Amino acid sequence: MADSKISNLNAVTTLASSDVVPIVNNSVTKKATASQLSSYSQLGWARYDDSQYTSLNKLSLVDGVQVTLPNNANTITRSPEGYDFFNAVTQKITAESENDTYMVTVVFKASAANTNNTHLDFQLVNGGVTGYERIHKSLAFYKGNNTEQNFHEVFQFYANSDFVANGATIKITADGGTAEVWDIIFFIQRTQRYF
Predict the structure, then answer these.
(1) What's the predicted TM-score (pTM) here?
(2) Is 119 exposed, middle or buried (0-12, 13-18, 19+ CB in 10 A)?
(3) CATH 2.60.120.1120 fits 43-192, yes or no
(4) Where are the domains of the chain?
């Protein structure tokens, strides 16, 4: 078949891994196989389950003291792509490239001795100068004093150069009284990737 303009080619809905696909960028045409393109998507997810703080060993929160919500990532489950989005040593959420977009789900159990006065402040804190602290939420206790309550928090963010360089940490503070936290899980998904 003679060379044709891309607009004259037939559209297909499925690709074989050996198919060659044209890529046009700034009027320069390149080619790639379908299998090469699929390796570039680099979307994926990972779940990190903490084993240190359990119902038998709860993390104690002191009134007004902000701490990192810890996760030792004892159990890690990944999508087939096998990416890591959290560093258990530094306790930071990580990003690979500027403008990548992520969705993070954090689940844990918590209780407070005095739920009339106590709430939790949940916040993403960046190690650099960018204000990721705007990802911040106050969490109330509705079930009563010393009663286990499940929390399920979801937030999205994009990574700028500051986030790529420094990462970010999930922080938690008991405000108005003491509290306890345990059974911590982070689920982090890259939803959009830029090259």
Answers:
(1) 0.79
(2) middle
(3) yes
(4) 6-40, 43-192
